[in-house]
């Protein structure tokens, strides 16, 4: 009888690869000596045992992560692993996180080394179930590496004469067997949605099979999204090429080019995305004498100025929910059910915004304790995704650096961001014409004009100022 065994367990970043080993297995009763050889041969069967070689995929550690960097491998090739052990540390666009194994086995091969990057869903290592399968896994890893570095065919030479070849879509290659995560650039996904192209049916030509915008354009049968070349000037082609080459200034001597880290790449992407949102800004001076006095009173108990400002902003947002709303598709907006204040923190290598969830409801002292924990995690790159990607309103404070005022760029997916300057002595006149000195800080809010209007923002800032100028409610 034939016997086979296999099991399929799925995780967000592991898949199975199976090989077959066959050996003789007899199930017949003992025959007479004269017929033993004939009966034995007639009852020989092959038992099939399936080994498992699993691919360790680059996990998606945040909603905006498209690729990750291997910070360090915690285990070496050939080392035995137990379920739940950390195997590798991955740097996402927000934090460094340990990746654990969900299976017992052996780290058979490392596909992506320390310091290298790979797109989400790409194999970064191989996990063998038994020690005997390590060599097979290494051979598989070697074949993957050779396939990854294989030179791609050169692109066809460009032609300056117009041709109807644009209307002919490029053939779509067959998708590999078995379920596999679709890896595509954000712009490619946007194009696929815009042109109603099934992105899962496209074979990517980018690194590790990543789908690029040109792949989507080819599948949709549209012209590449590049500007048409200008008509050639009467000057010679050589002169034109020389002018193009000298159009950008050369690199200065002893200068160095530094590639973006994953976090810097994420910041760059978000800032460019923010340019597509129509924003406006409103500034408001706020008297901080009472807030400064309260801060001196609660500071020994561990309360920070950040916690006071976040609490005041949360209470003001509760009265003006439209400022806490968000518009993500340009066709509707959402009143968020929670008030989660994201606070900008500068860390080594970039900027991150830990989130104080339910800032309007938390006790001031608990809010301060939570903020201290978040800052510690942010600086050690140990924030969990929900601790930095759930903000509904952002607070950025540069007052501790003596900055009078500044404007902040609206983060994608939020309705407003508040920029807080330093509190400084200011000469003011009262209604009777008498002059006095008051501590004032300038608060500027940048908002999405699709959902927040000038009157909405002015009313919100008035409420915020009243809470700060009469801060007793912050300690209730």
From TrEMBL:
GO terms for biological process: pyruvate decarboxylation to acetyl-CoA. InterPro entries: 2-oxoA_DH_lipoyl-BS, 2-oxoacid_DH_actylTfrase, Biotin_lipoyl, CAT-like_dom_sf, E2/Pdx1, E3-bd_dom_sf, PSBD, Single_hybrid_motif. Residues 53-131 form the Lipoyl-binding domain. Pfam families: 2-oxoacid_dh, Biotin_lipoyl, E3_binding. Signal peptide: none annotated. Residues 226-235 have a biased composition (Pro residues). Residues 160-176, 236-250 have a biased composition (Low complexity). Its EC number is 2.3.1.-. This is Dihydrolipoamide acetyltransferase component of pyruvate dehydrogenase complex. It comes from Brassica oleracea.
């Amino acid at each position: 009888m034939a016997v086979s065994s296999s099991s399929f367990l799925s995780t967000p970043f592991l898949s199975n690869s199976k090989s077959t080993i066959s050996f003789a297995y007899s199930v017949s009763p003992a025959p007479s000596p004269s017929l033993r050889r004939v009966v034995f041969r007639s009852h020989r069967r092959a038992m099939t045992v399936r080994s498992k070689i699993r691919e360790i995929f680059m996990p998606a550690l945040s909603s905006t992560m498209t690729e990750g960097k291997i910070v360090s491998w915690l285990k070496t090739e050939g080392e035995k692993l137990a379920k739940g052990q950390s195997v590798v540390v991955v740097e996402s666009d927000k934090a460094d996180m340990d990746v654990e194994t969900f299976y017992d086995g052996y780290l058979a091969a490392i596909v992506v080394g320390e310091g290298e990057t790979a797109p989400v869903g790409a194999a970064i290592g191989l996990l063998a179930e038994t020690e005997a399968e390590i060599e097979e896994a290494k051979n598989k890893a070697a074949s993957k590496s050779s396939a990854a570095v294989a030179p791609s065919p050169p692109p066809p030479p460009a032609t300056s004469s117009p041709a109807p070849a644009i209307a002919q879509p490029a053939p779509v290659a067959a998708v590999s067997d078995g379920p596999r995560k679709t890896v595509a650039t954000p712009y490619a996904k946007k194009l696929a949605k815009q042109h109603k192209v099934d992105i899962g049916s496209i074979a990517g030509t980018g690194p590790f099979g990543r789908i690029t915008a040109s792949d989507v354009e080819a599948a949709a049968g549209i012209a590449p999204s590049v500007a048409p070349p200008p008509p050639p000037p009467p000057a010679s082609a050589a002169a034109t090429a020389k002018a193009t080459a000298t159009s950008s200034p050369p690199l200065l001597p002893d200068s160095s080019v530094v590639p973006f880290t994953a976090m810097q790449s994420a910041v760059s992407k978000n800032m460019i995305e923010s340019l597509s949102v129509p924003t406006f800004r409103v500034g408001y001076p706020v008297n901080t004498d009472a807030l400064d006095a309260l801060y001196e009173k609660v500071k020994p108990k561990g309360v920070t100025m950040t916690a006071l400002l976040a609490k005041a902003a949360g209470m003001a947002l509760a009265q003006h929910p439209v400022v806490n709303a968000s518009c993500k598709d340009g066709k509707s907006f959402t009143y968020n059910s929670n008030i989660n204040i994201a606070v900008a923190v500068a860390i080594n290598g970039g900027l991150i915004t830990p989130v104080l969830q339910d800032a309007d409801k938390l006790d001031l002292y608990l809010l301060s304790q939570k903020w201290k924990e978040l800052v510690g995690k942010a600086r050690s790159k140990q924030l969990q995704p929900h601790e930095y990607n759930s903000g509904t309103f952002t607070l950025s404070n540069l007052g501790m650096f003596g900055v009078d005022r500044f404007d902040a760029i609206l983060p994608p997916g939020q309705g407003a961001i508040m920029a807080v300057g330093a509190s400084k002595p200011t000469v003011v006149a009262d209604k009777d014409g008498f002059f006095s000195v008051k501590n004032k800080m300038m608060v500027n809010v940048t908002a999405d004009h699709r959902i927040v209007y000038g009157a909405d923002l002015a009313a919100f800032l008035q409420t915020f100022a009243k809470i700060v100028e009469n801060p007793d409610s912050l300690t209730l």
